[in-house]
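Tokens for 4Fe-4S ferredoxin-type domain-containing protein. Go.
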Amino acid sequence: MQSRCIGCKTCAIACPYGAMNVVAFPVKQEGPSPLFKLNTVKAQALKCDLCNNRAEGPACVEVCPTSAIRVIEPTDMDQLMKQKRQQAATEALSTVTS
């Protein structure tokens, strides 16, 4: 949630693709009187949007030399998770009956 970002940059450090950016922008705040205004700086993360405006899709998917990254639709992800659960259950049952 963007509004909760405190600008700590841990997301930028953790992102293995360098897709996170933390930017600072000025924020004017009203002080106790109209003559007193505070000019402060707020840092906020610019998060990866999967290259939403890019016709070719996410750049990281395009440039990955081993095709390890891919975009998966939610329905495909559900099916993949179901298959993995079934495979794990089958393997667990085969070790119990052996």
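Residues 51-98 form one domain.
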